[in-house]
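Students often ask why we bother encoding 3D structure as a string. The short answer is that it lets us treat folding as translation between two languages. Here is a chain of 140 residues written in the first language.
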Amino acid sequence: MAGRSSTSCASGTPRHVTAIERDPVIVRLAQRWFGLGDMPGLELLCAEAAVAVATLRRARRRFDFIMEDCTYDETAERSVPLAVSLAPLVSRRGALVVNRHRRPHAGQTAAALAPYFTQVHLRRVRREADNILVCATSPT
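And here it is in the second language, the structure alphabet:
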């Protein structure tokens, strides 16, 4: 899961990027192999998604763009609450994109996000793919 901080510049280039990964080995590999340790403005949080989101909410952090992919193939009981917990982190002009399996809980995720956003759309990635992007914009 990654988010672009709401302190980005007008050109669309992010000043700050926050990424959440639960596995410290993956964080170390990303830092070493992809040079992410030297990337200015990158914040890597090593925690379970729900724990990191709760911490970011308590800190009143806001993001222009949030992409959630960590509960792609989970049950609706597990994936929908995480998506809803992200809603307060989206800045006024921001967007939340949630990657879900095309099973019915993509629709459940969209319905659960509807009270928090003016616009919620489902986008199939491609015909032969099983994933659907739930795109939520214009927080209420």
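Translate back mentally: The radius of gyration is 15 Å. Keep this in mind for the problem set.
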